Amino acid sequence: MTIHTKSFVALEMPLVLEQLAEHCQFSASRELAMSLRPANSIEVSDYRLNETTEARTFLNNHQHTSIENVFDVRDEINRVRLSAILQPVELVRIRNILVASRELKKTILAASNESKILFQQAQILVDLPDLEDAIGRCLNDQAEVLSTASKVLEELREKFKNTKNDLLQKLEHITNNPNNIKFLQESIITQRSDRYVVLLKSNFKGRIPGIVHGESTSGSTLFVEPIVTVDLNNQLQQLQIDEQKEIMRVLQVLSEKVSKYANKIENNVETIARLDLAFARAKYAEELTATQPILLPWNEDNNQT
User: What is the pTM of this model?
Assistant: First the structure.
């Protein structure tokens, strides 16, 4: 038997569920909280009550247990199943789920004597150290692709660094040359259209041979790429293109690894959601100073007056 919508609203259950959802730390568990409905059997009710009591005892004994800063990555999982390449921030979120799963599982299993139901659920969580390490080696917590992601990427970035240094040295030689000072608006190096340029006074156009990449709003300054640095600027741009290609290759490899474990990651997300919901019910019960009721089977005779 399902509770009637009018009765559900009359009992202010939507408000109760909203208050419960506020204690959830995970978006997936908040969805579960809002979809809760009264159980149809005493067995299900007893299970939920016992789970809440266990979670309450567990949190009292393990107050630092938390699954903050994790995201529901099921959309990302569905996309990699379709061979999508995930962005760095999405891969970091998946790694965070793996870390949270591993740490939560370890904590709950270590307290098996005080939480049988939680213990059974924690056993469902799957550790994926290879995937966790692979993402951690390639991306930091800020979702930046690290040079340790591949040997090719490391070499490209080193070459980019050296080429940029050579380019800046040539430009500094031009800006610091006493013979050029009167031609320059300022003795600084800047970028225009992703090219390194110097600031030439417009009335001295041509005094420093090069390519003009525009002028200032007032028209008094020209952004000039000296001809002697064109080749190095070209090299820098090509290195950036090669770097982006290698980054995309790394992201593709990581996404394929995620796809390999898609079902297990999805399982972890759903299990964490159920555990977080149990913790939310425990926190809500603690807030209300609630006690676990004893449920008795319905008996028609007991209903007679």
Answer: 0.87
